[in-house]
Design the sequence.
């Protein structure tokens, strides 16, 4: 399998991970990958690119079976407003195609927020930098590599 900016980033920092491919389905979300890989959808972590009122990007890592309360996120992040980026804007910020966005190896450094309960999981599946490709890592690696801000912003999906 060809390396992506995310796997290059992980390898260069000595991260232990496993690679998992699945059949990507347009607008299939994390349900498709969790069923394909036979893992709980809550362990598949979405990488969501958002922007604040000043159009400054930020990444939110969220359980696959949950949504983000942008109102709570804005309050906890000390911003007036946060909303999802348009796909082309997200791609410009990260260098990744939507559906293949990884928080690792982004085009430029972007602040990362993580749903606090993700850090309590034994392992997570997170995008490896292209559609239909996840890497399984320990959540502590997110803390070590990305220095994310833990938040409590999950809503039932």
Sequence:
């Amino acid at each position: 399998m060809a390396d992506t900016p995310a796997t290059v980033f992980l390898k260069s920092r000595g991260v232990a991970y496993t690679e998992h491919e699945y059949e990507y389905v347009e607008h299939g979300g994390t349900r498709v990958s969790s069923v394909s890989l036979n893992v709980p959808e809550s362990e598949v972590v979405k990488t969501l690119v958002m922007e604040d009122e000043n159009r400054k990007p930020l990444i939110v890592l969220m359980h696959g079976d949950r949504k983000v309360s942008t109102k709570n996120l804005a309050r906890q992040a000390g911003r007036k407003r946060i909303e999802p980026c348009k796909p082309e804007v997200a791609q410009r910020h990260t260098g990744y195609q939507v559906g293949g966005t990884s928080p690792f190896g982004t085009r430029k450094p972007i602040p990362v927020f993580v749903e606090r309960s993700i850090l309590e999981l034994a392992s997570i599946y997170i995008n490896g930098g292209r559609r239909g490709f996840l890497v399984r890592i320990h959540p502590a690696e997110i803390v070590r590599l990305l220095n994310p801000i833990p938040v409590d912003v999950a809503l039932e999906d």
Remarks:
- Residues 14 and 33 are 26 Å apart (CA to CA).
